[in-house]
Fold this sequence. Notes:
Blueprint: E1 8-12, H1 16-27, E2 31-36, H2 39-51, E3 56-60, H3 66-80, E4 85-88, H4 107-132, E5 144-149, H5 165-185, E6 190-197, H6 206-209, H7 212-221, H8 231-242, E7 253-256
Amino acid sequence: MDRLAGRTCLITGSTGIAAAAAMLFAAEGARIFVTSKTEAHCAKLVDRLRATGAEAAYAAADLSDEAQANAAVDDCRATFGRIDGLLAVAGGSGRSFGDGPVHTLTGEAWDATLALNARSQALVLAAVLRVMLQQARDTTGSRGAAVLVSSVLATDPVPDLFATHAYAASKGAVNALIRTAAAYYAPRGIRVNGLAPALTSTPMAARAEVDPATVDFARRKQPLAAGFLDPMDVARAALFLLSGDAARITGQLLAVDGGWSVTAVESGAGDGA
């Protein structure tokens, strides 16, 4: 239980997958810095972490705002002295902005969804990389590692149930960022990988978890989980990618999808539009 012993991990997001990862990483010996938009969620998670004896701190920030993203990363470095790992989870659905089939999208809906899911990840990654580039290499030659969270919907769409095209495009942008950043920073001793979860039991999935068609679809499309994934399923994959066990792995997008991407299932919920 010491795969992250002595390391500082910055986690964006404070519920769902991010919260599960924070608890898991702390159990593996990491110092945890949490940042997300909702201060109450950050504080609650940090209280849980400290109750276990973990070193933890937070900064509330709108990570799509460059100044706030930079300030949060600076706070992490000021608090713990360095950043060894980044897990970028923060993001969400664009439905409240009007996300949907692309022919229905406004420019505002597109921009807001891309800002929430792609701009925020890019800004945080950029700030963290600037810290890591200044750090000495460890015994494995590493200056740090980052894991960005994408979505299975970027590569394996289900149009009848999830016709949220700006969301899928934002996650596709994250996929491209993972690959290109990994190539650039590998010679500099920094690894960049990604996770593509399928339907996971998180606050973002609250609507889907009470929709009978989606629940039935998840049961069939994600046979390894027989339904929605547990956030810890994704957290364990993130732990692997940030640990020394993955010291020679970069530029990879790992689907944590319960079989979604290899299981052919008809949703049966289309409206023909």
